[in-house]
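User: Hello, can you help with two protein structures?

Assistant: Certainly.
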Amino acid sequence: MGPNFVRVGLFLIVLAGGQFVNVVSGSVGYLLTMTGHERELRLNMLVGAITCLTLSLLLIPKYEILGGAIATSISIALQNLLGVFQVNRLLGFNTLAIWRRL
């Protein structure tokens, strides 16, 4: 394990946080697409892209690669959480409620 690996470890942890939200939220994008709610999915993706671009412009100049990792993680998490909200509102179930019995 070299010094470069240790240096980028924090970046990977931040990115893993965004992917954790992605995994826990479930396949909300596929659910929206399969049930005819492509417009909602498109809106989620647009909000995620604008969030990522805005946060990148704000964070990268000051925090460099860590700012990019934070911007990416937040936008991924936001996009998936919006999908969870819309699946709950449109389809009537919560994909985050993994503790409930079916």
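That covers the first. Now for the second protein you mentioned:
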Amino acid sequence: MEELFIISGNFLVQVTYGVYMVFLNGVFNAGVNPLFLVVFGNSVTAVVLLPFALAFEKKKWPSRLSATLLSHFLLLSLGGVTLFQALMLVGIKKASPDVASAMPNLTPGLIFIISACLRFEKFDACCWYSRAKIMGTLVCLAGVFTMCFLQGTSETPRLANNWSFLLAKPLTLDKAINRDWVLGCFYLLAGVFILSCTTVLQAATMLKFPAPLSLVVITSVMGSSLTALLQLITEGKISVGPTTMSITSIVAIVLLGGVVMGTCMAFQGWCITKKGPVLVSIFCPIQTVSTVVVSAALLGQIISLGSLAGIVLMFAGLYIVLWAKKNETFSMLYVDAEPEVLVEDVEKPLLS
């Protein structure tokens, strides 16, 4: 029953993330400022997760916080909350929910490359598993670029058969739409790269602060404060934006998003302690499929061949990386001139 609960729960979590991506696209179209959602959304998430952190992780807190640990908290808040979420939300607004949900599939491969460069993880050019992880990362990256540049803007497929509209539409409008699309894809790619860097830093931080839920609460509060400061600097005030939505609706959206995301993160944290990060990562592509299906059903967006090809490449690349990392956990070594035996690798990969 526990395994059934874990599998069905992870499936539901990824579907929820996919629907939430499409929901955010509608919120942004109504004029809500993405930075505003980062500020108040993370505040709600911190409030939701705080009781869980106090109940399950209070004994794991260190007696004192060192300057190094505080600097890690600051970097995780700046990168993993403020920059990552701001770039992802702006990317959703300029590109599409489909591409935004597909980009995080790059994370395992990027984490491997960053970890190998920093020597947090082994990289042996002669090892087949290391080569497989590089190949999987490249395949996944090819899928992302295929989806970004072959799918095109969400407006183009719906208007492909309307020749009179295409002839009447100003050329400058086409250029502006395409420029926003490419810029949105760049924002999403930059956000995923920052997420990968902060994930490596988070793995190092967890060695001295083994309390994942508490870490999310701390970084959410600090990230919310940093994002509020960023909005004050760039816009002069903390504003909801020129939206047509009522304040009541916006507050309800923020509360709903914070509660749902906080609950999903708490569940995934529990699953990681039970089965490990690899099992949770395997379900990530379901988010992309859910987003594409919901976008097609609710927004009328055409699922193009470029989009399908990109999804297939990303799934293939992601599972190649996860398969290689899972099989790399154990290696064949000689011990005291005895026959080969399976022993656990000293440098355990971050995602296995």
